[in-house]
């Protein structure tokens, strides 16, 4: 159950969910706050009956070797912001990277947060990448710089990663993901370390290869892990940063 409280951070007001853990940021107000929350109407995500239209405001890459369309759709289900859909061939899917604002991990950023709540229909038959990264058309193929969580086909685990100059540091497993179940994936940077979470637990801490020399974009990639179309429902997705330089 949510229990939101406000905390001061470098003169800014940060709202955290005490009912989960104090690193789950749900809002922030202040002169140094940079924030992004995914809202489908802002990005003009197509209605459920339309196909083949990329959402506005993203660098978008799709792979559609198999039958069907890889895209982001609206959903008529209550509480679902959008659905990622793949075409029906292994490694078919969609990659989205927000065109500004851009986030960074430096000594001037005492807080960077990402949280996404999502539901995948088949964990062992899907690949997922979500977090912050430099521009890349194949995020799961390896990015030069980023802070992200990934899950690969064939397994049910999620891994937190920090990566600088193509040198990654991976956390241990954050825990087990389940089919057709909403999970909350998060990371929190406190100016020194990155903390990764699955469903508010399984804390893993990375201190190496934090990408502190480049700006990064909110990013997500979802691919089919077999020759069957897959879906990923998004219920919420948000980023916060304190410090703009």
Overall description:
By secondary structure, this protein is an all-beta fold. The protein has a single domain, classed as Exo-inulinase, domain 1 (Jelly Rolls, Sandwich), CATH 2.60.120. The protein is 0% helix and 49% strand. The protein has strands spanning 4-9, 12-17, 25-29, 33-37, 58-63, 71-73, 82-85, 93-98, 111-120, 126-133, 146-151, 157-164, 167-176, 183-189, 194-198, 201-206, 217-224, 231-242. The strands form 3 sheets. Strands 4, 6, 7, 9, 14, 15, 16 and 18 form an 8-stranded antiparallel β-sheet that branches. It has a 7-stranded antiparallel β-sheet with strand order 5-8-17-10-11-12-13, with no helix packed on it. The protein has a 3-stranded antiparallel β-sheet with strand order 1-2-3, with no helix packed on it. A hairpin with a 2-residue loop joins strand 15 (194-198) and strand 16. The model has no long low-confidence stretch (mean pLDDT 93).
Give the secondary structure arrangement, pairings included.
Elements lengths: L3 E6 L2 E6 L7 E5 L3 E5 L20 E6 L7 E3 L8 E4 L7 E6 L12 E10 L5 E8 L12 E6 L5 E8 L2 E10 L6 E7 L4 E5 L2 E6 L10 E8 L6 E12 L3
**Based on CA inertia axes, which overall geometry fits?**
globular
Number of domains in the coordinates?
1
Strand content: over 45%
At the third CATH level, what is the topology name? Jelly Rolls
Low-confidence stretches: none
CATH-level-2 architecture: Sandwich
Helix content: under 10%
Mean pLDDT: 93
- H/E series, N to C? EEEEEEEEEEEEEEEEEE
Task: Please give the largest β-sheet.
Answer: 8 strands, antiparallel
- Tally of DSSP β-strands: 18
End-to-end separation in angstroms reads 35 Å
Radius of gyration equals 17 Å
**Computed structural class:** mainly beta
Count of DSSP-assigned helices: 0
CATH class: Mainly Beta
The CATH fourth-level homologous superfamily: Exo-inulinase, domain 1
């Amino acid at each position: 159950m949510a229990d939101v409280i406000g905390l001061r951070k470098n003169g800014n007001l940060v709202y955290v969910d005490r009912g989960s853990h104090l690193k789950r940021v749900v809002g922030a107000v202040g002169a140094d706050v940079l924030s992004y929350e995914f809202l489908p109407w802002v990005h003009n995500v197509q209605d459920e009956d339309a196909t083949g239209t990329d959402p506005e405001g993203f660098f978008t890459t799709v792979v559609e070797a198999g039958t069907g369309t890889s895209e982001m759709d609206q959903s008529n289900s209550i509480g679902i912001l959008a659905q990622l859909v793949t075409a029906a061939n292994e490694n078919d899917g969609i990659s989205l990277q927000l065109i500004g604002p851009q986030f960074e991990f430096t000594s001037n950023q005492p807080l960077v947060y990402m949280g996404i709540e999502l539901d995948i229909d088949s964990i062992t038959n899907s690949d997922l990448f979500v977090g912050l990264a430099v521009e890349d058309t194949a995020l799961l193929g390896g990015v030069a710089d980023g802070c992200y969580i990934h899950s690969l086909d064939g397994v049910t685990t999620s891994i937190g990663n920090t990566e600088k100059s193509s040198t990654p540091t991976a956390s241990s497993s954050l825990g087990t993901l389940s089919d057709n179940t909403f999970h909350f994936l998060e990371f929190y940077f406190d100016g020194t370390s990155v903390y990764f979470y699955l469903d508010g637990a399984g804390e893993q801490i990375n201190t190496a290869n934090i990408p502190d020399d480049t700006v990064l974009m909110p990013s997500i990639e979802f691919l089919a892990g077999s020759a069957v179309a897959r879906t990923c429902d998004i219920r919420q997705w948000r980023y916060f940063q304190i410090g703009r330089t």
